[in-house]
Amino acid sequence: MSDHSPRHTVVVGCLVRNAANQVLLIRHAKRGWEIPQGRVEEGENLIEALRREVLEEAGVEIEPGPLAAVWSMLSPPAALIFTFLGRYLTGELCSSDDSVEAGWFSEEQALEQVTGQVMHERLKALLNYRDGTLYRAYTTRPYQVRLETSLGPR
Question: What is the domain count for the chain?
Answer without folding.
Answer: 1
